[in-house]
Amino acid sequence: MPLLAVNELKKSYVTRVLFEDVSFEVEPGDHIGFIGVNGCGKSTLFSIIEGREPYDSGMISFGKDAVLGAMDQTVEAEGVSLYSYVEEVFGELVRIESELDEIADKLTACGADEKLIERQHRLRERYEDGGGLTFRARTRSALLGLGFQEEEFDKDIGRFSGGQRNKAQLAKLLLSGANLLLLDEPTNHLDIKAIEWLEELLANYRGAFIVISHDRYFLDRVTNRTMELKDLKLYKSKGNYSRHTELRMAARELEIRRYLRAKKEIKRIEGMVEQQRRWGQEHNFVTAAHKQKAADRIKATLVEPERDPASIRFEFNAKEGGGNEVVVAKGLSKSFGSNEVFRDLDMLVKKNEKVFILGDNGCGKTTLLNIIAGRMRPTSGVCYLGAHIEAAYYEQTMASLDPENTVLNEVWDKYFNTISHKDIRNALAAFLFRGDEVEKKIGLLSGGEKARVQLLKLMLTRANLLLLDEPTNHLDIASREALENALDEYNGTVIIVTHDRYLVNRLADRILHMTHSGLTEYIGGYDDYIEALKNDTAGFGAAEKPVSANAREYKETKQLRSDITKAKTAVSRAEKSIAETEAALDEMNVELAKPHIASDYKKAGELSAKAEALRAKLDLLYEEWEAADARLKELSERGQQ
Questions:
Q1: How far apart are the C-alpha atoms of 410 and 442, rounded to whole Å?
Q2: 605 and 631 together in one domain
Q3: Same structural domain for residues 386 and 469?
Q4: Phi and psi (nearest 5°) for 585?
Q5: Residue 427: which residues within 8 A CB-CB, separation 6 or more?
Q6: Tell me, what CATH number does 527's domain have?
Q7: Is the N or the C terminus of the chain less surrounded, counting Cβ atoms within 10 Å?
Q8: Quick check: 352 and 494 in contact, CB under 8 A?
């Protein structure tokens, strides 16, 4: 019996339908990734399952053995230590401990008492069966795994940041004994070490969970099923995020192929119908009617594939110029009062490199970016940019955005001297700010919307050095992929601080692992970095060593991804040309059907010749599409090997 069954669920707000006909089941052991663009209704669905929000129609039922656990948006606890807050989940075991102590005291004072001994025996069994011998060790392990220090265990929970309180809540949830977890962006505010600890725990979790996340690397490691909320509907597949993407892409390509072939067949039949009618004999009209019925039958079953939803179109173009040495740092140190953030840091970044800086929270990654950007001075050492290098900085706090500005003015105020009002509006439209949305105040935007404004401003600088601090925070998966594609084609230098391992794997030429005592260099993407850590073979200056097999394989994989992107573009371009040519042919056929054209032999002949030319062009376009589609299929199959 499933732990959770959801049937034909519908939710709307006034006139806006959020989703409808949503049905799924969660079986014991299911590890489900839940994806979809920001605002599609994922968190609302969680609220409905928890009973915190009503729904319009449908049914939700839980199995008799289901124990639901979920993360709240905020932690309101005050006046209790971090350790005690998490240990509250074992309140029953603590109570049993207290009673066992009381019984032991009574037995010491009064001697043997059969009823007390029997009670003591039953309580001890409950205590041991409930995990009483290990719950304190498990509490400590969970807190340490999530990045807390032992000296913080006695600190008041109210004195921690919102992100740290959410981590404490996550620890409490994971220890709660629930067998059905609803996890909404659990990796937010976690550094890579804490995320990896969470991955290990969830991958081996014996219960079931549904996790909302935009972290694709995380989803690939912990999930065995995927649900995607898109265009009001729920799409389900077996497998992790990458497998789900492959299946959805294959299904869409098959739908498009069938649709285009059906359209081509309809055009071919209707061409024959037109020809039969032109000949004008009685048997020709009979044949034409028969053929038209065949075309109508195909039309009746023809369903146009779903169109891709509006998505952000990033395009970063760097100014020409700049020397080979882009960023140079020597003996760099930074302290705030007596707190030394890092020391003795050396770094050299060369032209057109994509360099990622990884490290634990608090090691100084953002401080280093600020120093490179010239926004902060080092305590000692030197850091400078190469000749003709212009840097643009993306800050994760987005503090540079004016909350009182409108979206339009935020961009217009910076670029009115160089970019026309019309072009700025077009750029905003490409970033999904259309119509009245450009008049929204920055302070009222969501985190994802603010990120889009900041990325647009960054795009318009045409800087040849991008300094990006957690650029994928607040972005949904579709927007992250658009950003990745743009950065992959960017013709400048990029230095990125991120916890997004998928982004690192996709783009990195080098990884610089940062600690308080400097940087250690690794060649390749995140998987190469992990492999190097396991083998303990990489160190600073590793770039001067021969390129490893892993690094070569990474470069080949990166090139293959680029080729697949180009092949997809070729397929899309062919499909667009086919659609435009078919539309032109439709207009031509409408003209030919008009009585005054049909009676004008010369005019009809001219239009018929043009129609034939369009049909010939359409045949060539179909050949181009088939070649591009075959190329894409070949590359995709290579990518799966």
A1: 8
A2: yes
A3: yes
A4: -65, -40
A5: 411, 419, 456, 459, 460
A6: 3.40.50.300
A7: C
A8: no
- Same domain as 500, residue 382: yes
Collect the ranges in the chain with pLDDT lower than 50: 537-548, 551
CA distance 590 to 610: 13
Number of separate domains in the chain: 3
**Can you name the residues that pair with 234 across neighbouring β-strands?**
229
Q: What is the pLDDT of residue 552?
A: 53
- Give the C-alpha separation, 633 to 615, whole Å: 26
* Residue 69 within any structural domain of the chain: no
Pick the closest to residue 132 from 103, 105, 94 (CA basis). Answer: 94
Give dist(CA 474, CA 217) in Å, integer. Answer: 16
Answer for the pair 507, 487: CB distance below 8 angstroms, yes or no. Answer: yes
> Does some domain include residue 611?
yes
Which range of residues forms the domain containing residue 490? 325-402+465-543
In a domain, 334, yes or no: yes
Q: Of the residues 511, 543, 575, which one is the last residue of a structural domain?
A: 543
Residue indicated by tokens 């001075």: 377
CA distances from 241 to 203, 221, 223, 234, 625 (A): 14, 9, 8, 15, 28
∠ CA 562-568-574, nearest 5°, is 140
Specify whether the CB–CB gap between 123 and 117 falls below 8 A.
Answer: no
- Do 381 and 471 share a structural domain? yes
Task: Give dist(CA 180, CA 157) in Å, integer.
Answer: 26
CA–CA distances in Å: residue 156 to residues 77, 88, 90, 152, 362? 9, 14, 19, 9, 20
Sheet holding 4-13, edge to edge: 16-26, 4-13, 57-62
**Distance of alpha carbon 434 from the chain centroid:** 23
Residue 316 lies in a domain: no
Same domain, 253 and 389: no
On whether both 476 and 389 belong to a single domain, the answer is: yes
- Choose the final residue of a domain: 285, 309, 333: 309
Output the six-digit token pair for 359.
Answer: 């490290």
Q: Are residues 355 and 476 in the same domain?
A: yes
The Cα angle at residue 257 between residues 251 and 260, in degrees rounded to 5: 140
The SS3 assignment for 178 reads coil
Three-state secondary structure readout of 80-94: CEHHHHHHHHHHHHH
Q: What is the DSSP string of 13-59?
A: ETTEEEEEEEEEEE-TT-EEEEE--TTSSHHHHHHHHHTSS--SEEE
| Two tokens, residue 21 | 């006909």
| pLDDT at site 541 | 40
Q: Are 488 and 506 in contact (CB under 8 A)?
A: yes
Amino acid at site 434: R
Res 311: pLDDT: 62
Torsion, Cα 249 251 253 254, to 10 degrees, reads 160
Encoded amino acid at 545, one letter:
K
The single residue listed with the structure tokens 């409808």 is 20
Helices then strands, each counted (H, E), the chain: 20, 18
Kindly state whether residues 485 and 361 are assigned to the same domain: yes
For 165, 500, 535, the CA distances from 469, given in Å and listed in that order, are 23, 11, 29
